[in-house]
Specification:
Blueprint: E1 13-14, H1 15-21, H2 27-35, E2 39-41, E3 44-45, E4 52-53, E5 60-62, E6 65-67, E7 75-80, H3 98-101, E8 109-111, E9 118-125, H4 128-135, E10 143-150, H5 155-163, E11 165-167, E12 170-172, E13 176-184, E14 187-194, H6 201-208, E15 213-221, E16 224-225, E17 234-236, H7 239-252
Parallel strand pairs: 9-15
Antiparallel strand pairs: 1-4, 2-3, 2-5, 5-6, 7-9, 7-17, 8-9, 10-14, 10-15, 11-12, 13-14, 15-16
Helix pairs in contact: 1-2
Amino acid sequence: MTELSHTSREDGERLQKVLAAAGVASRRVSEQLITAGRVTVNGRIVTELGSRVDPLIDKVAVDGSAVQLDPGKRYVMLNKPTGVVSTMADEKGRRDLREFTAEYPERLFNVGRLDSDTSGLLLLTNDGELAHVLAHPSFGVTKTYIATVEGIVYPNVLRKLEAGIELDDGPISADRARVIGEPSRGRSIVEVTLHSGRNRIVRRMLDAVGHPVLELVRRQFGPLHLGTLGVGRVRDLTRDELGMLLTLSREDGHPETVGPRDDDEDSE
């Protein structure tokens, strides 16, 4: 953990000013939050109004929710359409993510990937530190998918998915699996939640239990939910969403070594 630096830093910015600039509250209300003991810097409660911080180094939280102090960081949610590859520049000339990031002045990149035939929630950011934590295999961020599959999915199949099945690259189990609604025209809709990011893992799991995937959408990534965001649309994360995401990544800690990433549903 970064050592508390606001107590000795002469050239830092006043904590209440930094909180106000981050959009947490007005400077006066920020002062009240500090004196009430609701603000932490690098994990320690700070109550002195004269405290100074470096927005680029210190980790600040209010009521346990992390605050991004760097105004240059951007966090964008995309509802990726099918037929789009999860890269910023595709050498084969296929549709890529550039068409959804052109309006942003920052150079954004994707956190993890979705197969070109999979639609849904994809996080785009220029925060390399956060992206590395979320994409690293040791982090294991939870993801929820909605799959339309062939056949009627019975309870024993769901139990098998949760208990674990053996694939050619090792065992895998869903954190949660359930059927949504009633089967129609020989098809079922299954919600699968898991924290693995192995290649095309949801498709392979469902195929292994006899229910090939016809359509796949990622609805949730960690604390982020796709909600009503339309296919092909983008939006900035809300302050609450960003706070949850940053808090989650800080609680987990930063991986000490850089290893191969588990890119979700990646087939490119």
